[in-house]
Design brief:
Elements lengths: L2 H4 L1 H10 L1 H4 L6 H13 L4 H17 L5 H17 L12 E6 L6 H14 L4 E5 L5 H14 L2 E3 L7 H15 L3 E5 L10 H12 L5 E10 L4 H14 L3 E5 L9 H8 L4 E5 L7 E3 L2 H9 L1
Parallel strand pairs: 1-4, 1-5, 2-3, 2-4, 5-6, 6-7
Antiparallel strand pairs: 7-8
Helix pairs in contact: 2-4, 4-5, 5-6, 6-13, 7-8, 9-10, 10-11
Length: 296
């Protein structure tokens, strides 16, 4: 299946929201209202929608565009430009890199870690997985299952153990074995009186006390949550110094426009997208492919 077909719900929603726009025969005042409505319905977000409308309207005026389809071509180009401007590379140091995965429970953090571990293993990298979600026994077991598939080592602690200590131990183990990359799971909520965001700040501090450096803090968001995902992103960004987003379940939602809102309103690039259950269904995010799929 092609990428376009895999995000069929996103594409169908966006195409449907443009129905009224495409029924127009000329570029007049009403067409801009239709375009604004279409972008908002697609969950692009108010701030990004306003900017896109203003830029497309200005260019259409300068180029004396009077064909609605030509307006869409300009919009398509501007949407790609807005996403292409960010750095989406997953960063590794020359020595030992730590990638922290944060996000609320149920968004697919552990699965995302497992898929990445398998992909990196197939590239010849050795991986250590840190089971930092010590409040959920199921998360630790799930990580161990992924470790078997990716030939990785899991460092875990007892249930309810200090997540920071588990991740510190994982980094120390990786350093002793000459491993280049630690993928660290974290809790989506805590079962103690401590605040989750304070816990994440502590994890980052402790993780870097050893021989490793946190080069990525990836916020995992379930695409089906739409604008709620943006609220989550704001909270985690303030506490965890988020460097990128892994957007899961993009194949199961009509709310893919959240990618634009995350990128623009928070200044955080979407680096990975999940479009299925298989290991190969976790993909680097490619703005041109995504936007072209919406208009295809």
């Amino acid at each position: 299946m092609t990428f376009t077909s895999r995000i069929g719900k996103v594409r169908a929603s966006f195409t449907g929201s443009l129905t009224k726009f495409r029924s127009r025969n000329e570029v007049d005042g009403l067409i801009w209202e239709d375009l604004e409505e279409a972008l908002l319905l697609a969950d692009v977000g108010a701030t990004t929608t306003d900017r896109l409308i203003n830029e497309v309207r200005q260019l259409s005026k300068e180029e004396q565009v009077n064909n609605p389809e030509r307006v869409l071509e300009i919009l398509q180009r501007k949407m790609i430009d807005s996403l292409e401007s960010s750095n989406r590379e997953l960063r590794q140091d020359s020595s030992l890199s730590i990638w922290l995965f944060v996000g609320v429970n149920g968004v697919g953090k552990t699965t995302t870690i497992g898929k990445l571990a398998s992909q990196r293993n197939s590239m010849g990298q050795k991986i250590v997985l840190a089971a930092g979600d010590t409040f959920r026994a199921a998360a630790v077991e799930q990580l161990k299952q992924w470790a078997e598939l990716s030939e990785s080592t899991v460092i875990s602690g007892s249930e309810g153990a200090d997540p920071s200590s588990v991740i510190f131990d994982a980094v120390e183990h990786a350093a002793s074995k000459g491993v280049e990359l630690v993928l660290a799971d974290t809790a989506g909520r805590v079962h103690t009186k401590s605040n989750l965001m304070e816990e994440l700040q502590k994890i980052r501090r402790v993780a870097e006390k050893g021989d490793g450096t946190v080069t990525e803090t990836l916020l995992v968001i379930d695409a089906t949550t739409g604008q709620n995902g943006l609220i989550q992103a704001r909270q985690f960004t303030e506490a965890a110094q988020v460097t990128g987003v892994a957007l899961t379940k993009l194949d199961g939602t009509s709310r893919g426009g959240i990618i634009f809102a995350i990128n623009e309103e928070l200044g955080i690039p979407v680096k990975l997208v999940g479009i299925g259950e298989r290991v190969e269904d976790l993909l680097p995010f490619e703005p041109t492919d995504f936007v072209n799929a919406l208009f295809d």
